[in-house]
Amino acid sequence: MDAIILLTLTGLGLAALYFLVASGLSLVFGLADVLNFAHGLFLGVGAYATWWAAGNLPGAGPDGLGFVVAVAFGVAAGTLMAVLVELVLIRPLYSRTIEQVLVTVGLSLAGVALLQATWGADARPFPRPEWTRQVTPILGAQVPNGGLLLIVAATLVLGAILAFLRWTRYGLIIRAGVENREMVTALGIDVRKAFTLVFAIGGAAAALAGALGSVYFGTVSPQQGGSLLIFAFIVVVIGGMGSVVGSAYAAVAVGLLQQFVNYYGTSGLGDICVVALLAVVLLLRPQGIAGKVATA
């Protein structure tokens, strides 16, 4: 029983990490129709900016309020990177899917190379609060605090995104744009500002995932964003392109499946089962868990 509780909570922690990355991807594709393969770069920038700030930025550090300051700096850096990418590289390429893919894939590879050239290819120890290295007893299971931190953060981010989409003007524009972008444009609303805002939100969530994911793993590396991006894309497809709630459901399914299968099976079998789940969803419900059937 203790093992089941531990696997469930650590699986939810992994799911929370996947959701933080996938939520921005889902919003960006739902509104702007952009498959952003450079999304992992925002995660990497957020992770390394937090790592740098914890040791160099006045007022920042690995513990207490200093850690909050370091994470805020990392999130700001990831958000700024996302906005610059949208304004400089993506905005001239809307409605040009092939060019978008080529540019974002190239930017992703260049970003990893730049991180490697700056800080080296090897993983570096990540400065994290002492309490995140400890465990909390829950129903007899010793649960790592780093995973619990991810669960809390993802829950808050999900609530904040849903509140923003429901109760703010730009949130309503984004929701309407996801449903029918042509109608929103015909009403005289400049959706380009919404595109930039969505990229900023996605970049912030990805950067937060980079910072807290590094706390969870205990290290930061240039390849971290790329490896997490693969599972984030799987989560987005399973959940339904453009659906944040669907991404949350899919992230839970993927995280729990991966954790339980890897524990009770052989190492790596959980990854195979996740891909098999993706195939089943594409065959039986191509629009995803919360996606809508395309109409002519």
Automatic annotation (TrEMBL):
This protein's UniProt keywords: Amino-acid transport, Cell membrane, Membrane, Transmembrane, Transmembrane helix, Transport
Offer one Pfam family short name for this entry. BPD_transp_2
PANTHER family cross-referenced by the UniProt entry: ABC TRANSPORTER ATP-BINDING PROTEIN, BRANCHED-CHAIN AMINO ACID TRANSPORT SYSTEM PERMEASE PROTEIN LIVH
Q: Which domain of life is it from?
A: Bacteria
Family statement drawn from the similarity comment of this UniProt entry: Belongs to the binding-protein-dependent transport system permease family. LivHM subfamily.
According to its UniProt entry, one GO biological process term is: amino acid transport
**Which residue ranges run through the membrane?**
6-27, 34-53, 65-89, 101-121, 146-165, 194-217, 229-256, 263-284
Which is one GO molecular function term here?
A: transmembrane transporter activity
How is this protein situated with respect to the membrane? Answer: Multi-pass membrane protein
Q: What is its main location?
A: membrane
- Kindly list the GO CC terms recorded for this protein: plasma membrane
Compartments annotated for it: namely: Cell membrane
Which protein are we looking at?
Branched-chain amino acid ABC transporter permease
